[in-house]
Each structure stands twice: as structure tokens, then as C-alpha cells.
Amino acid sequence: MTDTATTATKSAEPVTIKKYANRRLYNTGTSAYVTLEDLAAMVKTGEDFVVYDAKTGEDITRTVLAQIIFEQENKEGQNLLPIAFLRQLIRFYGDSMQMLVPRYLEVSIESLTREQEKFRNQMAQAFGGSPFGALEETVRRNMEMFERAFAMFTPFARRESQSSGTAPEPDKPAGKSGGEIDDLKRELDEMRRKVDKLTGGND
């Protein structure tokens, strides 16, 4: 009885990975050395882990996850992060809005994950219809959500009623952030044009 409870508790805890000076990663759960590819596979299967520096005991999970993303981005055909996004993300480092970015990205990815599950379910039931319609509608909803969220970064943006479903237009760019907001709006407009072109091409 005690053994079962202990096993259940242990499996619910993140696996501890130790990183040694020679850059080797050691999985204490399986008592074996692992690679970044192995850790990427663990993430994809939902297995949680934390990574510690074997010498200092410092939590370096964030750094290792960033390395996994770097490795995945270097694989041909595996790119997920647009160049415009990476450049804008770099601009946020040291900016007054930096503290808001992590939470915004968390909410955005959670929303995208929920939409992904809905789309997969629709795809499974849509072989008799057109699955592209569901994809286009999902992209449009996400675009509108991103536009409203980005508008919140402008201090003096007008807040329209939520029922309008459109992003509020800023009165005037405020300080240095105005140019960045304009860049984001141009990027969003370009994405919307591409979505409209995709929609027209499938009609």
C-alpha cells in the first residue's frame, strides 16, 4: 500500500535532469545519459522535467529548453518562429513592457493550444466537407485576438466595445513605443492579407 502511494507521488513529480561540466545530461529517473533530442521527446509526450547544474545546483531548465528550441529551429522544415517575431521579441528585452511579455505569450500559446485541439476534432469529422473553412476561421479569430492584445500595449489606445470584434485604433503613437506598434500593425495587416488571399484561393 505504501509502495503504491510512493510510486504515484514520484510519477507526479518532475524528472530531475543533471547537466555536468562536459555538457552531458543525466536523467536521474532512468539512471542514464540523455540528449537534447531525448528531452524534446519528453516534452512532446507531456513528461515534465527540471534541469539542474550538477556542480552549482542552479536551476537551468529555461536555458536547456531554449537550447532545444534552437536545435529544432535549425532543422530544415521545422521552423516555427517567424523572423519578424524573433526581432520583435529581442526588442522587448530591456523595454518597459518586458515584464508583460511572458504572461502575454503564455496566454497566447494556451489559446492556440485550445484552438489546435478544436481544429483537430473538426478535421476528424470534416472529411465530407471542407476542412480549410475551419482552418481559415480559426486563423481569423486568432488574428483578431492578437490585434486586441497588441492594442493594449499602447497606453492611450481607445477601448471599443468588445462586441465590435476589432482592435482599437491608437490615437497617436506615444514616445518610442509608437514605431514598434506601427510595425506590429503592419505585420498583422500583412498576415490578414495573406489569410484573405488563402480564403479567396479556396472558394
Describe the protein in words.
With 203 residues, the protein is α+β, with helices and mostly antiparallel strands. It is built from 7 helices and 4 strands; from the N terminus they run H-E-E-E-H-E-H-H-H-H-H. Helix 2 crosses helix 3 (61-73), helix 5 runs antiparallel to helix 6 (131-151) and helix 6 runs antiparallel to helix 7. The protein starts with a helix and ends with a helix.
Could you list some keywords that capture this structure?
single chain, 203 residues, alpha+beta, four-stranded mixed beta sheet, 57% helix, globular
Question: What's a quick, concise take on this entry?
Answer:
The protein has 203 residues and is of the alpha+beta class. It is built from seven helices and four strands, in the order αβββαβααααα.
Fold topology:
Blueprint: H1 2-12, E1 15-19, E2 25-27, E3 32-34, H2 36-44, E4 49-53, H3 61-73, H4 83-92, H5 101-125, H6 131-151, H7 177-202
Parallel strand pairs: 1-4
Antiparallel strand pairs: 1-2, 2-3
Helix pairs in contact: 2-3, 5-6, 6-7
Straight-line N-to-C gap: 62 Å
How would you spell out the order of helices and strands? HEEEHEHHHHH
Give the number of DSSP strands: 4
User: How many H/I helical runs?
Assistant: 7
Q: Spans with pLDDT under 50 lasting ≥5 residues?
A: 1-10, 154-164, 170-176
Described by strand count, sense and barrel closure, the largest sheet is: 4 strands, mixed
The amount of helix comes to 55-70%
**Average pLDDT reading:** 75
**Overall radius of gyration:** 22 Å
